[in-house]
Structure formats: structure tokens, C-alpha cells
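Teaching assistant's notes for section 4

Start the section by putting this record on the projector. Ask students to predict, before seeing the second block, whether Large ribosomal subunit protein mL45 will look compact or extended. Collect guesses on the board.
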Amino acid sequence: MEKLVSAKTCLKFLQVMPQAVSSGGLGVLAPALQMQQVRHRQTKHWKPEFKKLRRQKFVKIELPNFREKPEDISKEEMRSRMKERGVLPPRPWMERPFHISCTGGIFEAYVPPEGDGKKSIISSSGAKQKLEFLEKKSKSLIAVRKIRSYDESFSSDQFGAEAQEIYVAAHTLMAAKEKYKIREYVSERCYPEMMHNVKDKTIHWRFLQSLEPPRVVHARCTEVITKENQFAQVTVRFHTQQMLAIYDRFGRLMHGSEILTKDVLEYVVFEKHISNEYGKWRLHDKIIPDWLPAKQPSPITYRLIEDVEEEPPKELSAGEEPKPLEAGSEQPKEQLQLDTPPERSSKPTLAL
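Reveal the predicted structure now:
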């Protein structure tokens, strides 16, 4: 049976053949092997099954003509090329996208009744406050209904407990000076106000207990730029017992006490971007009523530098002469000032 051999095998055999002739061994090799030259295409794949898939691996790209100048191309040709490639024409102005994550303040802020937390419901003033609260409740109910259209799990009765957790977490992180973690619990407007003047101070803050359960007293919704971009604000009333002590950088007590506890009545505003699916309720602001008396500023400690007053030089009378100095004694300052020539002296001298 004839054997087919490649060109490489033939070349090797031809290289060996002269040596075999010289040694007389050609008669042994000739009957053992019959040569037949077969051509093989080196570029052809050994397995032609997946020819189509192999062809799809390579993508032919039209290379641009780099020698072509943009001035030589007409507007119609440029338009057709851009339309073919799916490229939009450039605009003469520059636009940058921006994200509004919170509002700039409180819209339709809640006005706390004067003497809240001190007057009983049984008294006439307390009953009047309760009546005013019921009158303002209608707008809040409409706002709560709109919040529920975006967030079905929202409940004004259960939101007080959730708001208290956010309130405690935000103030704990503020005392610990966690400037990155606190951003999850406070809005971008509230962050600089909470972290202002915290540097070089030690803050000890503790939430002790709630004297009254937190409750929602006010709710409002507003749109920003478009009607679909909705923000919700809920005001929660907190009547709690807290401990606060602030120390300066030298360890001196500036405000509060770690021993005494105080009853705190606050109206805290929480905000949420309800149009955003991943929006969160965050602490936005605190309402400070106008009738509240102003607080006294904390004492500021600073280093006192005493100014040393220099004694003026003694004036000599017209007939008085300066006393000669003894050996080893120091020359007084007044004499040094008199001995210096007037053009070189830094201070004016007395003319005798």
C-alpha cells in the first residue's frame, strides 16, 4: 500500500539519501518507502465544520481617511456620514446634569403653639391649642395620602418610632464625629448645620427616655421643577429626656453637664424624595419658634497673653549731670540712650 508523505518528510529523506548511497544502504531503504509528493494548503483549517463561526470572529472595520481634511467635506456629506454612524450633531452650548437630593428649606413650616409641653389639655389655653391643631390637620391628611401613593408602607402612627431611630442615630454619629456615616441619616442641607463648630470639641450626648411618644404633627408635599419630582416633609414632635456635655480642646466644660438631665421638647422635620424609588427618610431641619427666648452663648476659652508695659525713660533736669559708673557695674538704659548719637538712635533723646 502506498503511503502519502508531506513535503517536509520528503526533504528530510532527500537529505539522508546521499549518505545512504555512499554507504551502500540504498537498497535497504528503497523497497521500504515509496515517495509521492502531496500538496497541502497551510492556511486551511484542519476541521472545516465551524467555518462560519470562525469567520464571524473577525470584524471588518472601515478605517477613516486620516489624510482627508474637514474643510474639504461638505455639510451634506458630513450629515449623511453622521446619520449613517448614529452620531448626534454637536450643540453650541454645554449642559451638565445635576441631581436635586433635597430641598433648600422647610415649605409651609409648622408653627408650634406657645407654651407647648407646659399647658394641660384640661386648661382653656391647652384646649385652644388642640382645636387649632385639628383645623390644620386637613392639609396634613392630604399630604399623607399623597405620600402613601408613592410609599404604600407609610403610616403616620408608626412613623414616630422610625423617626426617633433616625434622630438618635444622627445625634450619636454627630457626637462621634462620623462625618461620612452621618450622611445616611441627615440631608445635605442639615449636614453643615450639624457639623458646624464641632472641631476641637468633645461632645458627650445620651438619649435617656421619651416622656411622650413621638407623633406626627405636620406633613406637606411639594414639587421641584417638574410635577413628577415630588418631595415630602413630615414634622415630628419629640418630648424626651437627654444628657449633653460639651468640652473644649483644653478639657474645660463649655455647656451642659454629664450629671444633670434635661427635658427637651423639639419639632424635627424629616424629608424624603418620594419620587426616587431608593429614597430615605432623613433629618432635614429643626423648627425653632419665634416666642422661644434666646439662649446664652457658651463661654469661649482662649489663651491670655499679658502685655508688658515698658517704663518711659527718666528725664534729666538742665543742671543735672549723669553719674559715672563704677567698675563692674551695668550701665543703665537711660545712660545708653543719652550716649547714642541722635542720628543713629532709634528713639528720640532728650536735648540737654
